[in-house]
Design a protein that fits this description.
two-stranded antiparallel sheet
Length: 193
């Protein structure tokens, strides 16, 4: 996980095409039915705000989803609020299913240097930079989302790292697409005698 600027700019048409439509639907349908998806029209705006990187995986993804940080099951009133959306890889978003948002570290809360990718294992780990007030949620997030050592992310990290190692991607390109791996490379180079 890496810092994501917050707040992110709300698209001009969002209020009219999503929030107002959604609130109207919620008023007419107070039951447990899943709210209609008016938010996906703004997925690319959300992706741009996250620099096309997954909020938890911290790497470039070609087609992420709109995650409701506070799920519709937890609080339906947040279903159509721009400030509740995060850009995530679909399978990571699905892994949050039925878990409480207050237990997770929000991508908008992450500070610089709180997480690092270990070389050569490519596993994600916490650093000592995580403040005590956030540590329990950061640890919970690593344990309960498949971001630490899930083979799908390890393979993706390995692919970015190999592109760099083979000279097919510059360090600046790596920093843009997979910033935690770029930091790991810089740390490795700095440690050489």
């Amino acid at each position: 996980m890496i810092p994501v600027p917050n707040p992110i700019p709300e698209p001009a048409a969002f209020d009219e095409r999503c929030r107002k439509r959604g609130r109207k639907w919620l008023e007419k349908n107070p039951g447990g039915k899943r709210p209609p998806d008016y938010w996906s029209d703004f997925r690319l705006d959300l992706a741009a705000s996250f620099h096309d990187r997954c909020g938890y995986g911290a790497m470039w993804i070609s087609s992420g989803t709109v995650d409701h940080f506070v799920s519709c099951d937890e609080d339906r009133t947040q279903a159509y609020e721009w400030s509740n959306y995060r850009y995530l890889d679909g399978w990571i978003n699905s892994s949050k299913n039925k878990k409480r948002s207050r237990d997770f570290l929000d991508p908008f809360e992450v500070g610089d240097g709180w997480f690092e990718v270990d070389l050569p294992s490519l596993q994600l780990k916490l650093t000592d930079a995580v403040p005590d007030a956030y540590r329990a949620r950061a640890e919970y997030t690593l344990r309960n989302l498949p971001i630490r050592d899930d083979e799908r992310l390890i393979r993706q990290r390995r692919a970015w790292y190999q592109l760099y190692e083979q000279g097919k991607l510059t360090l600046d390109g790596l920093r843009e697409r997979a910033p935690l791996i770029a930091t790991a490379v810089e740390k490795k180079v700095a440690a050489k005698p």
